[in-house]
Amino acid sequence: MSLEAIHGDGSREQSDHSDLVLRKLVRMANQIATFFLSQPEEVRAEGVATHINKFWEPRMRRHLFEHLDGGGEGLLPLVIQASVLIRRPEAKPGSGVGVGEDARQGGPGGQGPVAGESLSEPSIPEASR
């Protein structure tokens, strides 16, 4: 018996996959926000946005914004607050927080990947240090 015979036209299987992807993205965004809740309030949203802008590929950000545009169910308030600083995938390169030419060249004071900072480390805005 084929998968199509089991799942009909495959729409349920596709829907289940989309739901799984969305649940993972919501969980990841909330994990980032949970980390930044330990930082000073004035840098939290910027920290979440900087991390997502630097490390999430356009497809992930597109799914996040589709979910936000649909109400953002399950996302922590900090993720929603940070969303105005997150670069939409169709946005002009260099827009958003923590992206563009400044990120490629390295941050002030010699920080950033150009100065040997690991890209796997969390991005904490300078004001919190």
Describe the structure.
With 129 residues, this protein is an all-alpha fold. It has one domain (3-107). It has helices at residues 3-7, 11-36, 41-55, 58-69, 77-82, 101-105. Helix 2 crosses helix 3 (41-55). The termini are far apart.
Write the layout of secondary structure elements.
Blueprint (H helix, E strand, L loop, with lengths): L2 H5 L3 H26 L4 H15 L2 H12 L7 H6 L18 H5 L24
Helix pairs in contact: 2-3
Strand residues, percent: under 5%
Count of DSSP strands: 0
Our count of helices gives 6
Compute the CA-based radius of gyration. Answer: 17 Å
Compressed to H and E, one letter per element, the order equals HHHHHH
Inertia-based shape: globular
User: CA-to-CA gap between the ends?
Assistant: 60 Å
Could you tell me the mean pLDDT? Answer: 77
What are the segments in which pLDDT stays under 50 over at least 5 consecutive residues? 1-7, 101-122
Residues in helix, %: 40-55%
* Count of spatially separate domains: 1
- How many strands, what sense, and barrel or not for the largest sheet? none
Q: Given the helix and strand composition, which structural class is it?
A: mainly alpha
Which labels suit this protein?
single chain; 129 residues; mainly alpha; disordered N terminus
